[in-house]
Amino acid sequence: MATSRFILLCVLVAAAAALLLLTGHGPHVVGYLPFLVLFACPLMHVFMHHGHHRQETDHRRR
Where are the alpha helices (DSSP H) in the chain? Predict the structure, then answer.
């Protein structure tokens, strides 16, 4: 129960920070948006392939 409250608090703080960042520095953020998208691609690739290794090791054990 405490973990879900902590996660909810983190999400709310991140949303508030994003709102303040966009309202105060909107033109600056929009200028960097293509770079942020390009940076997100390798991060998603790393985190999404993390789950594949667990599946491969499970198949080898069987």
Answer: 2-61
CB 29 within 8 A of CB 21: yes
User: Which 8-state DSSP code applies to residue 1?
Assistant: -
Q: What is the pLDDT of residues 1-60, one digit of tens each?
A: 678 899 999 999 999 998 998 898 888 888 888 898 898 888 888 777 765 555 555 555
> What is the residue type of 52?
H
Distance CA 25, CA 43 (A): 25
The Cα–Cα gap between 22 and 15 comes to: 11
What is residue 16's predicted lDDT score, i.e. its pLDDT?
Answer: 96
Contact in structure between 22 and 29 (CB atoms under 8 Å): yes
3 state SS of 61: helix
